[in-house]
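Morning!

As promised:
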Amino acid sequence: MLVLYCPQGASVPQFTNSPTLIVMVGLPARGKTYISKKLTRYLNWIGVPTKVFNLGQYRREVQSYKSFEFFRPDNEEAMQIRKACASNALKDVVIYFSKEHGQVAVFDATNTTRERRVSIVSFAKEKGYKVFFVESICDDPDIIAQNIADVKVSSPDYLNCDKEEALADFLKRIECYKQTYVPLDDEKDRRLSYIKIFNVGSRYLVNCVQDHIQSRIVYYLMNIHVTPRSIYLSRHGESNMNLLGRIGGDSGLSPRGHKYATALGTFIKSQHIKDLKVWTSHMKRTIQTAEHLGIPYEQWKALNEIDAGVCEEMTYEEIQDNHPEEFALRDQDKYRYRYPKGESYEDLVHRLEPVIMELERQENVLVVCHQAVMRCLLAYLLDKTADELPYLKCPLHTALKLTPVAYGCKVEHVFLNIEAVNTHRERPGVSFTKHVHLLQAQYKIIKCIIDSQYASVASDVVWHSVKVAQHVVNQTFSQAILTLGCRINDHT
Amino acid sequence: NDSVPHAFTLTNSPTLIVMVGLPARGKTYISKKLSRYLNWIGVPTKVFNLGQYRREAVQSYKNFEFFRPDNEEAMQIRRACATNALKDVVIYFSKEHGQVAVFDATNTTRERRISIVSFSKEKGYKVFFVESICDDPDIIAQNITEVKVSSPDYVNCDKDEAQADFLKRIECYKQTYVPLDDEKDRHLSYIKIFNVGSRYLVNRVQDHIQSRIVYYLMNIHVTPRSIFLSRHGESELNLLGRIGGDSALSPRGHKYATALGGFIKGQHIKDLKVWTSHMKRTIQTAEHLGIPYEQWKALNEIDAGVCEELTYEDIQENHPEEFALRDQDKYRYRYPKGESYEDLVHRLEPVIMELERQENVLVVCHQAVMRCLLAYLLDKTADELPYLKCPLHTVLKLTPVAYGCRVEHICLNIEAVNTHRERPGNVDITRNPEEALKTIPDHF
């Protein structure tokens, strides 16, 4: 992954100096919004700030929808409104690029006339933006009917209509566009940068890819598909290290972990999944889990758990003892923080990009992995931000079944009823660092008091400290205080 | 359960890549480059060049008349050569563990392509066509000058004769050339490359390997440029004979970095991009260049795991078995809690892809990393890769030329320790320490 040199040490991925405007092209119900949202999700996940500007939303804000007549090419009044909406959307693109650090904007509209596209290209040229067109061409009536049923009939435009009415109106809407639709032309548009997608990906025409980000976009678009399927995510069964509260390492499953693996096998069988692919990491605990499934599995090194570097195999208490500053820094920016001699979540995302790409190509897949890895994959699939990602809940012994539906993903949590330790550490409270320092100071005081044998005073201090500690999620510290408290009681 | 290091599902069926196009359209260039890339990422691939079969069958080439569509006798010979080449493909797949075969021939008629598709279907091979279409006379003239005029076919001709004959040869093919058709061939899997990559048409990509091939072909270009490879300047750990770590440059290392800056300026390179790793020693080296540089974590040195910052003597003392195992299979051997060269290649794949997209680039990296990059650029095998010589304080300038790469070694005359360890004679785990340490380089 390209990283621009930054003296402070933080790596800011920079794919291109100029912002890129992706312009969708195509008749209604050709998957433009689906592609826009999916592409945006992918680009944001790999660290390229991207935003969709959907013209339909701009139009809905200005005008409540009555019927397809709004879209008739001879409806002058509507045309003015539509042009104004397009202008407003592009104005917002300018703000996104110049003031909000955006790098890619996806202009999700039909853009079916040469005239509209020519004006967008001039606008972009004037501003110094690169333009990349994504045209979706589809003449398969079944696919179009499916799209309409999936996302159009339930659109805000048809809130007060029944399905039949909505369908009929929408088909007339498409006809309005067809009258003036001019696809990108091989000859006339040979200097534009674009990809034409035919019939949901059986065929692509790629012209004049300018740079790295466009090349990545093309590669991504050529790997996604819409065939129905499910993705199953699960962590390995509880491991011996998990039981000891230790992070990382490469330990085997605990007895309960083995029970989970067996239960997972049963669950998978009961799902009667067609051609299921199973992926694990190179670590014992995922491999042992997969072994119980009785299905061939593939090992990916890229699925290995986050490398905790110098903190490998430590408990959180030990990390607090030996690397208290690092521990606090991690809590300040858990996504970007890199363990000394280890990795950050940000590094993990880069490592996992080929896994995501292959996940897109595949159909039914079960990924047996690890907590941090699963958080990254889940963040991609459910469009979570870098801030949310490191705190996503991925408990042991729970399988997640994700099924793409409409513009997103349906999630089912399947807890297989085998007990396991909890390995989830919440985001600490706002004044966490302050509390830690407070606790550390109180701990020192208590120690002094014990050493100087003012035991009765100590027990009050201890009790107060425990109460404070209960507000702090770092329960291990309160445990330490409690332990100390017991020692004081023993003294008295 | 031996771990399969590769990220992607290797297709169960072998894949036959079939080149399509008139002569001088870059088919052999693409075949060789693609084959080099696939082998480097671990997919055993081989090129079957029909011209070579023809040269073996017809010992001496006379002139373009051989290729006239009405030359019945020649047609028989050419068909027989194609059959022999495909027979060899079968052997490559069934007996030599090949996974991808590139059939490098014109394949310009529907008839020929149909017969290849039936052949593959019968054998259970997947077929992927790569058609190169070019109508730019300058590009074609350039190709002819670079690789045709010096071909074995024209060994006894002067340049102009060769050029003239070759152009007539192309005319012979043009008469019967039928490109892949949007409608008639819509069930075939293929990529059409127009005018050296300004435009691509991709139809029916079937699986992962075809998707990777398409991505690769869409990222390569033929614009002249040079790739400069250099290690960081000598580091403090280098001086102590210790591997890995993240130490700073030694005084001599700093001198090298300055000399490198001087050398680069002297080359007057247009729009040079400079890449380093995230490690101090490459960053400090790049700092002296006075050019903006980008840091890639993927360019970090191989992780030696438990052996990080040890000397070879330490490794022999503390991990003698591991040391021997590494000598037995240096490419695949993975340091405990560390990496193997094989892992490194995977890590470097995005770097290679971006290197293909770019033009003039200087990569400041590390010994093992440089060996991997060099193996890709110079088509070295996995066996040769871990022993490629990449000494400190030497810049390699690689310039793509014809079907390969020209290499210039530039030693900048600043002394440095040698860090190259040859494979010792005895790699048995029962060997004694002297045998293990025989080839270690000197250090302080």
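Chain A has a mean pLDDT of 87.

Hope this helps with the figure draft.
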